[in-house]
Amino acid sequence: MSLPQATPTISNEEFLKFRDFFYRKTGIFFEETKHYFVDKRLVERIQATGNDNFRSYFVMLRFETSGTELQALINLMTVNETYFFREEYQFTCLVNSILEEVVQHKPRNESIRIWSVPSSSGEEPYSLAIYLLEHWPRADDYNIELVASDIDTGILERARQGRYDQRSIQHLPEPLLRKYFTKLNGQYQINADLRNSVEFTLVNITDLAQMRGYRDFDVVFCRNLLIYFDDTSRRIAAESLFNALRPGGFICLGHSESMSRITPLFKVRKFPEAIVYQKPR
Amino acid sequence: MALIRKTHTTPSDGNNRRLPRDRQGLLRQLEDEAADIRRWAALDLAAFPDAAEEICARLEQETQTSVREAMFTTLIEIGGNAVVNGLIPLLRSEDAALRNSAVEALQQLPDAVSPYMATMLEDPDPDYRIFAVNVLANLRHPQTPAWLVQVVAHDRDFNVCASAVDVLAEVGTPEAIPALNALPERFSDEPFMQFCVQAAIRRIQGHDG
């Protein structure tokens, strides 16, 4: 009879070793306070991959050519959820800092083009629309084009319909909910004006040929996407985003992502509200 | 004004390009005066794996970061022997940015780099050997710890060994410990080595304290 296997444990040195590696690969840094969070997920993957200790698992993780296990671990260590006004400080940065700089170099008759990719079920592009209308005093002075893209046709259809449950809208102030949404069978549907103001398109940003149609954007929101790519795809995606921006255009990544770890193509810009990346002029 | 919707964002069908996209045409465009044209040529050359040698040869003359990056992206996509053969000589370049980009590109081509690694680690130039160790720092290849142990056991240069110890701290297995333990004696006039080795062994063993 075989004895049940003991649950693997992660020593402090092993935590530090893993933390250094994971930070270099992803840009995500775990504070000491996240020890338990990290350990729990590491142990889950150690067991799922048939390893019985951290050492053997780490060797596998480190040298597996396909990168599949690293990807599984990234998925587990990151929380992929979307809701209205998620990471609101970046929207604040958009209206307070980024757009003010964009319009300094833009004639009044030229549109401001903003791209949300991946748009998922639409929370981000609609948040952008609401934020611009509510918080950018010069919104009426310019034509603003909002393009939202995703690789998943099903999620794009949901985005076009613009129907959300309570979890998606939980961070929206009540007055904005009343102003821009209609309650419908227990869900909240964003109003037709806003639905019609966003162009939803299907795209794979690692496909350079497909991406050629995406040009002249002033600002791109590409949050929590690059982290899910392998090294080569991430590089190609960075090239695509560079091509999609106008000179001087800005890109906003997720809070744990860093363009500097992927490519030297962009300048780092530190605004009071957020760190973003800029295509050189 | 305010929010408007336009529907002109459509994927390119590839037929409306201004300049020819054939192999020879793209290689010619790599020498164009306009950086934008050179950059698009570099990206589109990914469709022509047999152009790897010419792209590598062009890297040292290219001064624009955006074009260079596009060339490296294409070379990584192409991969294989011709790319590795073209990138390895760049580890001797005096241009640090170019050298670092070459190291990063080689790290992403583990299978193609592996046949060259033993020779790279025996090069007479210690700086070059350090760059080879830098490649190993992020090379997803099962042979990596063994190559590093070889360095630690046999390389006569302090800086090369110290670089390898640093990498072994992360990727080393217990098999590396005897070679690591022997290092402080080989470099007895360098107290820093003792410190590095102790830190690396602690990490490899995974012991606290």
State the main characteristics.
heterodimer, A: 281 residues, alpha/beta, Chemotaxis Receptor Methyltransferase Cher, domain 1, Rossmann fold, 2 domains, 3-stranded antiparallel β-sheet, 10 strands, B: 209 residues, mainly alpha, Leucine-rich Repeat Variant, 1% strand
Describe this structure in words.
The complex is a heterodimer of chains A (281) and B (209). Chain A has two domains: 12-77, Orthogonal Bundle (Chemotaxis Receptor Methyltransferase Cher, domain 1), CATH 1.10.155; 88-278, 3-Layer(aba) Sandwich (Rossmann fold), CATH 3.40.50. In chain A, 44% of the residues lie in helices and 18% in strands. Chain A is built from twelve helices and ten strands. The model of chain A has no long low-confidence stretch (mean pLDDT 91). Chain B has two domains: 19-108, Leucine-rich Repeat Variant (Alpha Horseshoe); 110-209. In chain B, 62% of the residues lie in helices and 1% in strands. In chain B, helix 3 (52-59) runs antiparallel to helix 4, helix 10 (158-171) packs parallel to helix 12 and helix 11 (177-186) packs antiparallel against helix 12 (191-205). The radius of gyration of chain B is 22 Å and the shape is elongated. Mean pLDDT of chain B is 91; it is low at 11-15. At the A-B interface, helix 1, helix 3, helix 6, strand 2 and helix 10 of A face strand 1, helix 4, helix 10 and helix 12 of B. Strand 2 (143-150) of chain A pairs parallel with strand 1 of chain B.
Number of beta strands of chain A: 10
Q: Number of helix segments of chain B? A: 12
What is the tally of beta strands of chain B?
A: 1
Strand arrangement within the widest β-sheet of chain A reads 6-2-1-7-8-10-9
Query: Which CATH architecture of the largest domain in chain A would you pick?
Result: 3-Layer(aba) Sandwich
The ordered H/E elements of chain A are HHHHHEHEHEHHEEHEHEHEEE
Measured by DSSP, the beta-strand proportion of chain B falls in under 5%
Low-confidence stretches of chain B: 11-15
Please give the alpha-carbon distance between the first and last residues of chain A.
Answer: 70 Å
Order of helices and strands of chain B: EHHHHHHHHHHHH
Mean pLDDT of chain A, as a whole number? Answer: 91
Total number of distinct structural domains of chain A: 2
User: Helical stretch count of chain A?
Assistant: 12
Based on helices, strands and strand pairing, what is the structural class of chain B? mainly alpha
> Percent range for helical residues of chain B?
55-70%
Low-confidence stretches of chain A: none
Let me know the largest β-sheet of chain B.
none
Gyration radius of chain B, to the nearest Å? 22 Å
CATH class of the largest domain in chain A: Alpha Beta
